[in-house]
């Protein structure tokens, strides 16, 4: 059995964050499981699998059936592209978290629309990775580090040029009838000096209710319940302020 992911959860107690439990995602023979334990581990090698109370994760809740009108990523591209796979670490935490297949399919639908209307500031989508008739990942051209990492590594950033590129990409999304709903520095990657928008699992049609996933605390307005263009505009403005503040430090 293979440990795929592990994460420590904390709760607030008397104003302090206190360790609650460790959650582990495991895989064996193509089947996934999760377990929680009150033990802490320095690494996956320290985990005693025999003592974990395993709960099965049905694969149909992770990987949706592949619609035949979607794009099947070329086999040759799988070796060199970035493949976005569902993270299972929050599976079972909420009712919505057990419907990851819906989240993956929704993002694939957005990417299919973007594929026919490409833009240099939008990640280039290559198609779905398909195994046994199900979507197991979304394939994109591989870019550099995200904007947050780029800035923290000390790269010189043309703030005006960067913000213009992000705005151009967002405008393209809006013109196609979509709102990204999660504009933040970790969802912008760098292609040389040019920003490229990624991560469309929060993306919705303009005016639609929010989906299973929406926004990032501190970067997204918390007073919205539907996909409105001003949510993205506000996210871009927050990135601009962050870049200016970081440059002054």
What does this molecule look like?
- The protein has 4 helices and 11 strands.
- The model has no long low-confidence stretch (mean pLDDT 92).
- The longest helix has 20 residues, at 229-248.
- A hairpin with a 2-residue loop joins strand 1 and strand 2.
- Helix 3 (159-175) runs antiparallel to helix 4.
- It is an alpha+beta fold and 249 residues long.
- It is 24% helix and 26% strand.
- The strands form 4 sheets. It has a 4-stranded antiparallel β-sheet, with no helix packed on it. It has a 3-stranded antiparallel β-sheet with strand order 5-7-6, with helices on one face. Strands 8-11 form a two-stranded antiparallel ribbon.
- It has 3 domains: 2-57; 61-140, no CATH class; 147-248, Orthogonal Bundle (Transferase(Phosphotransferase), domain 1).
- It starts with a strand and ends with a helix.
- InterPro entries: Kinase-like_dom_sf, Prot_kinase_dom.
- Keywords: Kinase, Transferase.
- This is Similar to serine/threonine-protein kinase.
